[in-house]
Amino acid sequence: MRLLVTGGAGFIGCNFVRHVLAQRRNARVRVLDKLTYAGSIDNLEGVLDDPRVEFVQGDICDQAAIETAAEGADFIVHLAAESHVDRSIISAEAAVQTNFVGSFRVFEAARAAGVSRVLHVSTDEVYGACEGEPFVEGDPLNPRNPYSATKAGADRLAHSYFVTHGLPVVIARPSNNYGPWQYPEKLIPFFVWRALSDEHLPVYGSGLQIRDWLHVLDHCRALLLLLEAGEPGEAYNIHGGNERPNLETIRLILDELGKPESLIRHVEDRPGHDVRYAMDAAKITALGWRPEIEWETGIRATVRWFAEHREWMERSVARGKAYFEEWYAGR
Ligand code: NAD
Ligand code: DAU
After folding, report:
1. What percent of the chain has pLDDT over 90?
2. Which residues of 74-110 are buried (b: 16+ CB within 10 A; e: fewer)?
3. Residue nearest atom 7 of ligand 2, based on CA coordinates
4. Which of 54, 151, 266, 287 is deepest in the core (most CB within 10 A)?
């Protein structure tokens, strides 16, 4: 199988590339990644030595670059994105360009290359905040922050390419991922980083917001399944089955690190903060997938992984220095 993975040097991308190489001997993987602050060659440590892997630095918004990268591919897994909600609140520019315009260019390149499957990775955030029953795939999309609005646009654009052009695209809607190599601006690695430095943990508002945590390896198994067995034109929710209030997650992090709860500080909330994400995942479960990594085991192992990779965290945080200073000023 010849695969193009966009965003393969990011958190989910580098885990997915490792997973495919381990699971499919005949895989040939080309990674296209711009290497923004969130992506790094470091994340592909041990992977780039594999003769089955080719790395190309390039931007999905550049039609020539994405078309060249897609040449000869049977499958495209589209993960490249500006993935952080808080950054999209400071400025939505990069998210609009990469998540919407860039996705458009990926779908055009997929058409030109005649690939047999495109897996478009959307997000549970496209449904908006959940106030009742967990969302099912047919529910209306109601994104409420700039990041999720760009993702919802791309999600529907992907579907329109299936309906209009017959592009064989499958849409994945995963919940919050956690695990190794996550860029330390996201809750879990950021708070590990802060706690290890004995700095306060800036909890937005009450800290009672709920996220459904999905281990990245469970997610990668789901993505490979959808790539090979998903129905073109269909969307699939992928959840962890672990709905937790943020404060509970934060207390587990502190406990694993042996740090005091006095580090917790409630700060100004994120504007437009979605209070709860929740999805029903019966559709992908019917294909034979379910999450396997138990929450407390998974989170504790993840916290230890970050603690053991402090130099990697330091280099990663350094790339986002200006953002951290701006967003957390006064928080
Ligand atoms: P990430 O920020 O860790 O990685 C994104 C990668 O995309 C980086 O390597 C970056 O360099 C690359 N990239 C960004 N802009 C690019 C461009 N214009 N051209 C080429 N490469 C570019 O993100 P992630 O957490 O790995 O998320 C991957 C995908 O999964 C995203 O589409 C995101 O919306 C989606 N998603 C993530 C989560 C989560 O919890 N992390 C949950 C649901 C959905
Ligand atoms: O739900 C899927 C989405 O999950 C993905 O589509 C996004 O790419 C990914 O970034 C993630 O979005 P969230 O906004 O849920 O993740 P984040 O790690 O930024 O925040 C998780 C929760 O923790 C959220 O309720 C906000 C809160 N939080 C986060 C940070 C960074 C804080 O209280 N303080 C913080 O400093």
Report:
1. 100
2. ebbbbbbbbbbbbbbbeebebbbebbbbbbbbbbbbb
3. 83
4. 151
Residue 125 CB–ligand 2 contact under 6 Å = yes
> Is 187-211+242-273+294-324 a CATH 3.90.25.10 domain?
yes
Residue 243 annotated to the active site: no
Give the CATH number of domain 2-178+213-238; options: 3.40.50.2300, 3.40.50.1000, 3.40.50.300, 3.40.50.720: 3.40.50.720
pLDDT at 236: 99
- The burial of 33, by beta-carbon neighbours within 10 Å (0-12 exposed, 13-18 middle, 19 or more buried), is given as buried
Best residue for ligand 2 mutational test, from 88, 99, 124, 186 (most atoms within 8 Å of Cβ): 186
Predicted confidence (pLDDT) per residue in 54-83, tens digit? 999 999 999 999 999 999 999 999 999 999
Q: Which ligand is nearest to the CA of 155?
A: 1
> Global pTM?
0.99
Tokens of 309: 């990779």
Q: What are the boundaries of each domain within the chain? A: 2-178+213-238, 187-211+242-273+294-324
Distance 271 CA to ligand 1 centre (A): 22
